[in-house]
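Contributing: when you submit paired examples, paste them exactly as shown. First protein:
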Amino acid sequence: MKHQLAGAYHFEKATKDRVWLTQPTGGGQVLELTWGEAMDQARRMATYLESLGLPEKSQIALFSKNTAWWIISDLAIWMAGHVSVPIYPTLSPDTIRHIIEHSESKLVFIGKLDGYEAMAPGIPDGLPRITTPLCPPGIEGATPWDEIIAGNEPMQGETERDPAELATIVYTSGSTGKPKGVMHSFETLTAGGQGVADLIGADTNDRMLSYLPLAHVYERNLVETTTLLVGYQVFFAESLDTFLTDLQRARPTLFASVPRLWSKFQMGVFKKMPPKKLNLYLKIPILNGIVRKKVLQGLGLDSVRNAASASAPIPAALIQWYNDLGLELLEGYGMSENFGYSHATRPGTVKAGYVGQTYDDVEHRLSDEGEVLVKSPATMLGYFKNEEATAAMLTEDGFLKTGDRGAIDGEGRLKITGRVKELFKTSKGKYVAPAPIENKLMNHPAVEQAYVGGNGQAQPYGVLMLSEDGRAKLSNGGRDDLEESLAAHLAAVNAELDHHEHLKFVAVASDDWTIENGLLTPTMKLKRAAIEDMYQPKEEDWYGTGAKVVFG
């Protein structure tokens, strides 16, 4: 089995003049790079990296939104014999610094980013930096991409990397909220990418739009790894404002997203055609096919033959809505620790609430506690510089402990029924560790206890149990002042968090949380399951208010 770098060399020779990467450059302009052109840039950058004399197999950080140069930079890092360390493009300075310093990165690529000025303090002073095209202006002390490409000859030959070698370190949040470095080899990356490609029948003629963060294993597997193995064309999105145009340009044959975006697409359709009217048209045989085609064409999804949703649960009603349009959404399940290569729904086997069966070379079982355990050929090498956490994550026979509780039906399909750990995912597929945020929320005189929830929602939220001081203010006509104070506190807490952790609102609980009513343990810790059961039915109404502070 060839790995990604070998795949890149293969397509460089076999399809040199074929367009590979299509990159919007602003103002409606698009740059198309052939395999030959993209690999030429990768080879020149690899020559430059080699000239720096970095220690063998150094870590090199990659800090950018998705662009053609993200993938080209990754290839150059591998060609030069080093290890890539992707950084999410929306992290706080503290988290950025932690990842760079913990990974011992010797250099950082800085690419297309929004709000770079606020994140810049996270990059340590003196760390060498390379800026790629579309990067923010005015980055001091950086060497520009074009200057490097113009000043270096292409690296000759084909760098051979052992499949078992460390290829990348992907940082993800652990249960404490601190990012942990998941180590993947070329072999584990390839196992995931090849398995996905085989399942969906991906080939050179396919097209895919890249817009979910490449720093996340979901996109890294479905886009970067898979294109390097089968050679299909990749289009990039320019921005949220141009997303529909980008999608219509790509007319992807393969399309993967998260529930939140599938829902947004639906809302966009409803703005143009009310649900009742659309449903009526879909029930009329003579109009059914015409309406289906028109809606999917409007979304840029009319050429999609395989559509996927993953990273968070998707409502059964939403799956059915797309199915009525003739687009079957196939769910997937996985984690950073197995490169997202775990479970997937096969066409024709969709069952609401289930995330599918294991891939053919993946095993799963439930522990005595009902925890989902998975053994995959894409299982990580371990956590970087954290042997204790690695040992805790794996069973003696090599199964990953997912932290999710589940059930397996007679067809081998998995249903996620809850969480063993406190960690949860938003609908954007980002992990949120609630305890550290709750501690910040409790740093207010009016707050005694705090709970953070929002599993499957776009952003998390907080529920506050007031202290005696807070209750006194509320009962003495001070609701407006309390609301203003809590809103200011929420803003201050959010300023200390990564973007995906930002609380959409805080709700002031009308109930006491006590040991007696089963909401607190004898040591006054939250009983999360009980609190979640109490407030989850209210979530949609709370989100619907649009308020920063909700009483209820």
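Second protein:
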Amino acid sequence: MCGICGIAASRGGPQISEEILHKMNESISHRGPDEDGFYVNEKVGLASRRLSIIDLTSGTQPISNEDETIRIVFNGEIYNYKELREYLKRHDHQFRTNSDTEVILHLYEEFGTDCLQHLDGIFAFAIWNENTQELLLARDRMGIKPMYYTHLPDWQFIFGSEMKSILANPAAERKIDLISLNEYLSYEYVPTPRTIIRNIWRLEAGHFLIYNRRGVEIRAYDSLSFRQSESRPPVDWHDYSASLYNTLRSAVQRELVSDVPVGVLLSGGLDSSTIAALMVDLYPGKVESFTIGFEEGSFDESQYARKVARQLNTQHNEMILTSKKAVELVGEISNFLDEPFADSSIIPTYLLSRFARQKVKVVLGGDGGDELFAGYPTVLSHRLIGYYERLVPWVLRAYVAPRVMDRFKVSFDNISLDFRLRRFLAGRGVPLINRHQRWLGSFVDEEKASLLQNWVKPVLRETYYQSYEYANSCDAKEPLNQVLFNDLKTYLEGDILYKVDRASMAASLEVRVPFLNREVVHFANDLPLDLKLHNFTGKFLLKKMMKGRLPDDIINRPKKGFNMPVAYWLSGDLKELMTDMFSESLIKRQNLFEYSYIQKLIEEHFQHRKDNRKLLWTLLMFQLWYQSYIE
């Protein structure tokens, strides 16, 4: 696991600066504290920061081929590298190291860009081919490892594992992309391929990019399909349970490849508990499990993790997060987030990563299970709202329900009933994609029309544009399959995987995600929808598979997630920070938002007239980012 960055020039572009390349690489030193490496010639500069996990002694990057005409820098892990290595050795490739990085290089020599079809792993890499004067960038199928790039008018191309490495190059401008600002306010993150900075892009999952004297060309090498899911006749879950178990078990086994100890992140939910249970059966030694608890009772789920750990007999490690500690970190997280990001669970994820890193360099996690097997309450809500619209008379929906909700006492507890009901009713009468994003995200267009300055408002026509683009590219006809596809392409990649990568890499910890192994993803996407959301039961097949392998109350308990007491913080410990970040002078200097509307949101929240946690937190995270990266 590493961080990588580089510069390429063509058509008489500026000379590659070693000094700038070193600054770019230093900005991502947290991703690889063990060593760094560089290669520079007149056309390209490649740099790497290494976290040593496979081939601890000889895997220093960049790595070259036999005649030193092709070089690679690589971030990630290739789980089938040993099998690929044997194949390549039989085809006369000579190896200098035992690393998975060198395997990719020789695989590229053998197959060109088709090498990507053979890789099972999490990866983002860059290959410079001296013979063709081409730079190849590639990213894994699900977007687990990040890749940013920009192509400048002076024929200079810059890339990096994080946007901060690009911003460390003075040639990159720091201008806010207003379409991305609009998307951030809606989604709570900026969906791929855009970023918050104009002309800096993310390479999309399952894509590769070629840069040469003709410019930039981007192509897909893999895509997600639900065609098989919708073409199968009705089936019984018994026909699929054993196959899912074997597929997932095989993925866990492959992802245990490492020359250092591997642990597991255990929240006590179904997904992480499933991974832990499979790992215990396969790992040669006692498994170290890690969880984080919260001092606020309604947010704490650590007792479930303890119960699973006892049953599986792991060496369990538990850390309690206090509100004081969490609030202290709020002002710091922009140091390792180079884009505004409003998922508050980044805080416990970062602390859990730091905690696990005290004992291990690598952990397995349960991310991806909800997106693949319809585990989120929003998917069920789409089905419920259909019944609501059909069975509840129009007069009750239009007039009575809003008045009843107005009488509900506003509660700041962990996603309280009134909060859930208000979010649910906000989705009625709204098209599928809009409704889904309203439930998941933050600001809607009516709120943004009050928030944004008049000169910014034209971007509102772009709201949810990326989700509609993905919906149009999806081969699913079933609406709920379209929702699952949208989650895989937006929420999973833009929120969950971004959060896990940044939080874990800030702690120099590698997180592997067996649910997102290519074989598991293909298996899950081919499943009939009824085996994921069966009547009103999400993750139906996964729950059936784990029956008898995990306690029933772990399998069947409702999903809660890493929710934080943000609503309380905003009206308590974060009051002073909010005052600074929403000062009239700063808001007017930015010339993006209406100061009076922000003050209205704050007053409503402070007086418990409305729960504005999502809106205020989304704005606060933007302001903290703005101060760190723009001002």
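If you have annotations for the second protein, write them as plain sentences, like these:
The mean pLDDT is 90.
The first strand starts at residue 2 and ends at 9.
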